[in-house]
Amino acid sequence: MGMFERDQHVFADAGPLDDSYEPEDIRERDDELAKYQRALQPIIDNRPTSNIFLYGKTGTGKTVATKYMLSHLESDAAQYDDVDLSIVWTSCENLSSSYQVAVALVNELRDAQDADRISTTGYSQQRVFDLLYDELDALGGTAIIVLDEIDNIGDSDDLLYGLPRARSNGYVDNVQPVIIGISNDFQFRDSLSPKVKDTLAEKEILFPPYNANQLRSILSPRADKAFHDGVLSEDVVPLCAAFAAQDTGSARQAIRLLREAGELAQAEDASTIAEDHVRDAQDELEKNQLYEGMQELTPQGHAVLCALAYHQALGEIPVRSRDLYQRYTSICDRLDADRVSERRVRDHLSDLNMLGLITVYERNEGLSAGRYHEYELDVPLQAVLDVLLATSRFEDVADHIRSTAADQNRLQSDFSSY
């Protein structure tokens, strides 16, 4: 017998439990899809089309809904000779400025034409924008530009001002750009400059978290395809849905929980996936989600986390937001990054609290000092540094924090204290 043998008992087809799986239909998003269809309909009618922004936390169906709607739009547009449609899709996950997004778009368009790519340095921002306008104008018709995780660009929103005005400013003649922005941050629009808010004139579609019943509806057809008959106990799918609904309302979390439970059952050579497998899978994924939650923060979120990690390394915790803000501005200056207001830093701290990464203490010292909040990490400092060290922009600062923590003997090597 070999060390590795092909599974014949648990998984029939694990594809439906993969993050990249695209379902044939989108469940539990009828209202959102109807709004999406109305927003895209002018393209078929050859009418002016508004930009579209989708908001919602990770795993609420924004990206999969966009792929589904644009696939149908592209297919239906092919029926009309007078509809010329192009779609350009760029993930902004590792892009933190309009300049970087514009370079990525130019290269995406040039890759499609097997043309030479441009480098990420050596050009002025306006030159990169001009190259992008040239590439788009060569497409003609309507060009839908999908910017996934657009909130990563933070305050660097020049592209969101330039693209919608490209035609009226004479930068393009033959193309009508339409932006579809996908954001995990409900407050992203608040961080945009007033001129960008006015220029975008976008349709907004909100994707709320799923509830337990909706998650059961999403999980059930995937489970039917993924597992052999008779493998799943009746309470497995409802329990996966309940855990995810209570935590984040994320379909992605529910699907990963179901897959992890199956893998645990497979490792035990169990004949069925039971409730205990789901509970063990939940414990395992909680640790992984901490890392993932930190990795998916925006650059501004990373800067706030970095500032708190610095205070943690020095033992200056819990720390008030006003003191934390001073450290945050120093980090931004060191990184040559844009700052946000103290109010926005408090918003980021609220997000970190919701992710379970920090603890917030409310203090009330009466008339003398009033009511205020203090913050400290709720995960090991080493776990935070591991994520920051893997993020190139914060590597040097994280390395300095690690040295500081080592001097203070404040590092923990694992999740043992969690």
Key features?
Rossmann fold; single chain; 418 residues; 5-stranded parallel β-sheet; 3 domains; 3-stranded antiparallel β-sheet
Q: What would you say this structure looks like, in words?
A:
InterPro entries: AAA+_ATPase (IPR003593), AAA_22 (IPR049945), Cdc6_C (IPR015163), Cdc6_lid (IPR055237), ORC1/CDC6 (IPR050311), Orc1/Cdc6_arc (IPR014277), P-loop_NTPase (IPR027417), WH-like_DNA-bd_sf (IPR036388). This is ORC1-type DNA replication protein. Pfam families: AAA_22 (PF13401), Cdc6_lid (PF22703), WHD_Cdc6 (PF09079). The protein has 418 residues and is an alpha/beta fold. It folds into three domains: 30-206, Rossmann fold; 210-292, Orthogonal Bundle (Helicase, Ruva Protein, domain 3); 297-408, Arc Repressor Mutant, subunit A. It has 17 helices and eight strands. The chain has helices at residues 30-44, 62-77, 98-112, 125-139, 158-162, 188-191, 194-200, 212-226, 236-247, 251-267, 275-295, 299-314, 321-335, 342-354, 366-369, 381-389, 395-408, and strands spanning 52-55, 85-91, 141-148, 175-183, 203-206, 319-320, 358-364, 371-377. The strands form two sheets. The chain has a five-stranded parallel sheet with strand order 2-3-4-1-5, sandwiched between helices. Helix 3 runs parallel beside helix 4 and helix 12 (299-314) packs across helix 14. The longest helix is centred in the last third of the chain and has 21 residues, at 275-295.
